[in-house]
From TrEMBL:
<dbReference type="InterPro" id="IPR053173">
    <property type="entry name" value="SAM-binding_MTase"/>
</dbReference>
<dbReference type="InterPro" id="IPR029063">
    <property type="entry name" value="SAM-dependent_MTases_sf"/>
</dbReference>
<protein>
    <recommendedName>
        <fullName>Methyltransferase domain-containing protein</fullName>
    </recommendedName>
</protein>
<dbReference type="InterPro" id="IPR025714">
    <property type="entry name" value="Methyltranfer_dom"/>
</dbReference>
<dbReference type="Pfam" id="PF13847">
    <property type="entry name" value="Methyltransf_31"/>
</dbReference>
<feature type="domain" description="Methyltransferase">
    <location>
        <begin position="43"/>
        <end position="158"/>
    </location>
</feature>
Length: 277
């Protein structure tokens, strides 16, 4: 199980966060995976590590009925939501299991997850490994789950280019404290820059790293801002920050969200590696 600490920093700490994650899709959230998935043969196995409530996995399963899609996450509630959504949609080629990415091999014993023993064509993460307490173990397990010539793809955040505009004192405080809060909760908000190093440490040779790129989601549409403010407001309100800081940040975010020209960045790094036989 995720510790309560890990759960409440951008992971799966609330129904609000889970609902937001259930709306994620292959496009626009992980477009870098599309060419990899398009090239997979029928019968290939794709696994998302830290799939949350399964928005992306269900979308892939529905768009590629000839593939088997596996999703795993440490949060039982997210797995329940993912299973319910797949059942409701009548999608049969997706399976979910609760487990820890740092002990991914334990899931090999779960029915339908045998491919995690070196049989997956694509194993990917999206904003999940940063929340685990042993990133190297998680990436090493992803490598083990991948078959020879299989791909691992990691898209993890790096708050180094976290900015918002226009700034006010509350937004400024949010930008300063939010990554620090993540660190204090056991997450690594600066994981993106370390991915190449970790992928090498996990056993990939330099030549097996096929791509390293920056990715940044920009939020600027008026319709998403109230949800963002509510989600971040909730994380801030339940944090250990001083009451004065909480008030300043929540009010600052509300003021920011009402500006027609306001934007915020959610930066990350994408690393793709292929295991050679
Ligand atoms: C920000 S969410 C991303 C969910 C999903 N990948 C997506 O993009 O919609 C991070 C997810 O990582 C999961 N997580 C955190 N630590 C984990 C671990 N040790 N093993 C598996 N999943 C974990 C959380 O429960 C959460 O669902």
């Amino acid at each position: 199980m995720a510790s309560e600490n890990q759960k409440d920093w951008m992971a799966s700490g609330s129904d609000l966060m889970r609902r937001a994650m259930q709306n994620r899709r292959l496009i626009p959230d992980v477009p870098h995976l599309k060419p990899i998935i398009d090239a997979l043969p029928a019968g290939a196995v794709v696994c998302e590590v830290g799939c949350g409530p399964g928005g992306i996995t269900l979308d892939i399963a529905q768009q590629y009925p000839e593939l088997t899609v596996l999703g795993m996450d440490i949060d039982d509630e997210s797995i329940k939501l993912a299973r319910d959504a797949a059942e409701k949609a009548g999608t049969k080629n997706v399976r979910y299991a609760q487990g820890d990415a740092c002990n991914l091999d334990k899931l090999v014993e779960v029915e339908g997850f045998e491919a995690l023993d070196g049989g997956c064509d694509l194993v990917y993460s999206h904003a999940a490994i940063m929340h685990t307490n042993n990133q190297l173990a998680a990436i090493s397990h992803m490598r083990h789950a991948s078959k020879a010539h299989g791909t691992i793809s990691l898209h993890e955040g790096d708050m180094g280019l976290f900015f918002a505009y226009p700034e006010n004192p509350g937004v400024k405080r949010w930008l300063e404290t939010f990554p620090v809060l993540g660190l204090s909760k056991g997450a690594d908000p600066y994981l993106g820059r370390k991915l190449v190093s970790l992928v090498l440490a996990a056993g990939y040779a330099h030549g097996q790293i096929k791509g390293v790129s920056m990715a940044a989601q920009m939020q600027w549409r008026p319709q998403v801002k109230p949800g963002l403010v509510m989600g971040f407001g909730q994380i801030i309100k339940t944090s250990e920050l001083e009451e004065e800081d909480k008030k300043l940040i929540v009010e600052g975010l509300e003021e920011w969200s009402k500006c027609e020209d306001s934007i915020v960045s959610f930066p990350g790094v994408i690393v793709t590696a292929v295991k050679e036989a």
